[in-house]
Design brief:
Elements: E1 2-3, E2 8-11, H1 26-33, E3 46-51, E4 59-60, E5 64-72, E6 79-89, E7 94-96, E8 104-107, E9 112-120, E10 125-136, E11 142-154, E12 157-165, E13 171-179, E14 185-194, E15 198-202, E16 205-208, E17 211-214, E18 221-222, E19 227-236, H2 238-241, H3 244-248, E20 252-262, E21 266-271, E22 275-276, E23 285-291, E24 295-297, E25 302-310, E26 316-322, E27 328-331, E28 336-341, E29 346-355, E30 359-363, E31 366-370, E32 375-379, E33 383-388, H4 390-393
Parallel strand pairs: 4-11, 24-33
Antiparallel strand pairs: 1-5, 2-3, 5-9, 6-7, 6-8, 6-10, 10-11, 12-13, 13-19, 14-18, 14-20, 15-19, 16-17, 20-21, 20-22, 23-25, 25-29, 26-28, 26-31, 27-29, 30-33, 31-32
């Protein structure tokens, strides 16, 4: 049994000396004549020739394990009904990797039965390749033997995720991917497959002169122990965005699909399990801002639009109260009846206010009272507006 892996570039140790030393130019000439060195750069350790791997090497999760299996008849007799079976034993299952389950009729002396097996590694830990051979001798005796080859599957990447819940039902996902192998990786693809309730937008590119370029540069190599952050924005689909109760309880976001290449193009792929976030707690009533200006004039009225959503499972009868603060003053009638609001339904509310103080001011002082339960919900620090003098703005 021999593992099939890509070859590696030949490395040699350069031996040189100064011309006034005893060997003179002998060492330099030997390096120039060596076919494994790079012409014009003989002192580099890395050569142009390829060498076959001398040991098993490392196998990482997500890569394809390939092995060459050869059964050779060392005797001087013909054997019959040869059956070669290759199984891969993991900590949780046993997989049959043999390409064919049919027996070979006969095997003459000094002849071989060859087979190549492939398996995409999907588990970490100890793996045992079990090769079993059964055959019948010329005397009709049935013979059987097995060989075991043990190897470890290592973890290639360390993936950490962070979630940020926005007020507009958007969810921002930051994925930190670290290369924990000993060789650089070429990150071919890192994408997020969202759950059925969300649409995803990748925030890992910038538009330069009409072209979309990766924020990580043209060559997305990840050196050993380096970490890279990928950012995604998930927005609820229209049919789910209107149902506040549905989006409120959604914890499953999606899964990451990561594809990379190492050394001479060896491909690896990992797909995470379903990523889950802590669902934001909106309470019984959620108030969010739909529109608000960035900059307003001092002591001049400006309009905002609020969205009030009933996140509970009962109908509410709401009353709106507006309380002035030191800098923000509401325009309109306080104690207004908003009427009944059914579960998972929303209403839009246009409000007018003005600021008597310059600078960055916080919009606060809204109160919603449910007349059924006599319960009041307070909303302060809803948003911020920049208040400037009208002369400065002009």
């Amino acid at each position: 049994v021999m593992r099939l892996t890509k070859p590696t570039l030949f490395t040699n140790i350069p031996v040189t000396c100064e011309e006034r030393d005893l060997p003179g130019n002998l060492f330099n000439q030997l390096m120039k004549d060596d076919p494994s060195t790079v012409k014009g750069a003989e002192t580099l350790m890395l050569g142009e020739m390829l060498t076959l791997p001398q040991n098993f090497g490392n196998i990482f999760l997500g890569e394809t394990f390939s092995s060459y299996i050869s059964v050779h008849n060392d005797s001087n007799q013909v054997v019959k009904d040869i059956l070669v079976k290759a199984d891969l034993q993991t900590s949780s299952q046993r997989l049959n990797l043999s390409a064919s389950s049919a027996a070979v009729a006969e095997l003459k002396p000094d002849c071989c039965i060859d087979d190549v097996i492939h398996h995409e590694v999907k588990e970490i830990g100890t793996h045992i390749l079990v090769c079993a051979v059964s055959y019948t001798t010329q005397t009709g005796e049935k013979m059987y033997f097995r060989k075991f080859f043990k190897f470890q599957v290592l973890k290639p990447l360390d993936v950490k995720t962070k979630f940020y819940n926005a007020e507009t039902d958007e969810v921002f996902l930051e994925a930190q991917i670290q290369n924990i192998t000993t060789s650089p990786m070429f990150m071919e693809k890192v994408s997020l497959e969202p759950s059925m309730m969300y649409n995803v937008a990748e925030l890992n590119t910038v538009d330069t002169a009409g072209k979309s370029e990766s924020t990580f540069g043209a060559r997305t190599y990840l050196q050993p122990m380096d970490t890279r952050q990928y950012l995604y924005c998930l927005k609820p689909k229209q049919e789910f965005a209107e149902k506040a109760g549905v989006i409120k309880g959604v914890t499953v976001i999606g899964k990451l699909d990561i594809v990379w290449k190492t050394n001479l193009g060896e491909r690896g792929r990992l797909q995470t399990s379903q990523l889950q976030r802590m669902a934001p707690g909106y309470g019984d009533v959620r108030l969010s801002l739909e529109t608000i200006p960035d900059t307003v004039n001092l002591e001049e009225p400006f309009d905002i639009t609020c969205k009030i959503t009933n996140c509970s499972e009962r109908t509410m009868d709401l009353v709106l109260e507006m309380c002035n603060t030191n800098s923000i003053h509401w325009c309109g009638v306080s104690g207004r009846q908003l009427g009944k609001l059914h579960p998972s339904s929303s209403l839009h509310l246009a409000l007018t206010l003005l600021s008597s103080v310059q600078g960055l001011q916080s919009v606060s002082g809204l109160r919603l009272t449910d007349t059924f339960l006599k319960r009041t919900y307070e909303y302060d620090d809803i948003a911020q507006v920049c208040v400037v003098s009208s002369e400065i703005k002009q």
